[in-house]
């Protein structure tokens, strides 16, 4: 009954999964959208545009499990052969051991970084490393959609702004971005849903251990591993409830954007 919902927020471990999921949504969506817009803006009409955008998009063609396994080689540490990240940090002179300076840090296991350890109810540094994988897989999708939207901005609007004395920066911020606002909202909503459902990357890298579990991962573990179907169902309902305000905000924002473009 309702005790399961109370348990979600009274238990430190389960409460952490909620904060982790919120971090995935906020940070993952924001960074992905910014990267997508930046790449779409500056890669358009440059030499090698197609090759560059193909390279950005390729990670999106990999399954999330495959992406997680791929990045395990980047984050690898003892007792396995050290990965790329350890090789980079180990080659930086004077870098503190707490930041990987010794070249054998356990990146996905350690929650602290640089001598700072977050409280048990806050996401650890290893959670942010998993979000990096998520951003890597989603940035290509965002870039392709934003690139198509930017190319769809009428040339008449851009030329009119330039004739009125607007700089290229002003044209981008005052004309392009407002025009593709609906696209930005749609992409952000799609990535938000993907962040809320984050499971594959977590399962393939840490299994939800070491403070990296998310709501979706915890739902699976409590329901199918621990056979606590009541708590699992409560987590599933919580996930559904979190989606509702996002849909409402998305619809309102899209309606405003459509009215702005129509005006």
Architecture overview:
- By secondary structure, this protein is mainly α.
- The chain has helices at residues 2-10, 12-43, 49-57, 64-75, 84-90, 125-151, 155-163, 168-179, 181-196, 200-205, 215-225, 229-262.
- The longest helix is centred in the C-terminal third of the chain and has 34 residues, at 229-262.
- The mean pLDDT is 90.
Largest sheet: none
Tell me the total number of β-strands. Answer: 0
Our Rg estimate from Cα atoms comes to: 21 Å
Helices and strands, in order, run as: HHHHHHHHHHHH
- In whole angstroms, the N-to-C terminal distance is 50 Å
Label the overall shape: globular
Give the integer mean of the pLDDT values: 90
Quick description:
The chain has 263 residues and is mainly alpha-helical.
């Amino acid at each position: 009954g309702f005790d399961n919902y109370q348990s979600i927020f009274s238990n430190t471990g389960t409460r952490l999964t909620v904060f982790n999921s919120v971090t995935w949504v906020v940070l993952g969506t924001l960074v992905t959208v910014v990267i997508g817009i930046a790449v779409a803006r500056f890669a358009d009409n440059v030499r090698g545009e197609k090759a560059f955008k193909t390279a950005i998009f390729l990670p999106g063609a990999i399954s999330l499990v495959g992406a997680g396994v791929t990045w395990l080689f980047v984050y690898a540490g003892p007792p396995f052969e050290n990965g790329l990240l350890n090789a980079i940090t180990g080659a930086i002179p004077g870098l503190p051991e707490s930041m990987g300076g010794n070249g054998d840090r356990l990146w996905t296991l350690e929650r602290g970084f640089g001598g700072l350890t977050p409280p048990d109810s806050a996401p650890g540094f290893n959670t942010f490393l998993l979000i990096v994988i998520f951003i890597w897989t989603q940035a290509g999708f965002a870039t392709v959609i934003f690139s198509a939207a930017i190319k769809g901005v009428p040339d008449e609007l851009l030329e009119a702004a330039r004739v009125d004395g607007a700089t290229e920066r002003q044209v981008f911020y005052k004309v392009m971005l407002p025009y593709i606002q609906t696209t930005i909202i749609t992409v952000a909503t799609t990535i938000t849903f993907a962040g809320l459902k984050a499971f594959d990357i977590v399962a393939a890298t840490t299994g939800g251990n070491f403070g990296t579990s998310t709501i979706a991962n915890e739902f699976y573990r409590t329901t199918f591993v621990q056979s606590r179907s009541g708590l699992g169902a409560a987590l599933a309902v919580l996930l559904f409830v979190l989606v509702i305000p996002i849909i409402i905000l998305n619809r309102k924002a899209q309606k405003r954007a459509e009215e702005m473009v129509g005006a």
